[in-house]
Write the structure tokens for this entry.
Amino acid sequence: MGKTLRYLHQAEALAPAGAWTLEFIGVRPDSMGRGAGRFLLDHILAATTAPAGFFLTTADPANVPLYRRFGFTELQRTVLGPLTVTAMARPSLT
């Protein structure tokens, strides 16, 4: 628990000031690979005014390329036991 809390504090420090944090986005397993995640993320990013941009973390390396296609860049990778957590940010496009 202590290591997880240290990571959370470290990750929060990486978020651009005022950025909106995308806490969780997911799709049902039977919808995976059909563009549902892309659709949701596109809608969230288009419908949300975030002058300071967006910030997220992911523990699934398969998500990193998707987030890159939406303009997110990697800020840091942190190993937590068997997980590698990637912190990413995207500046405002407006």
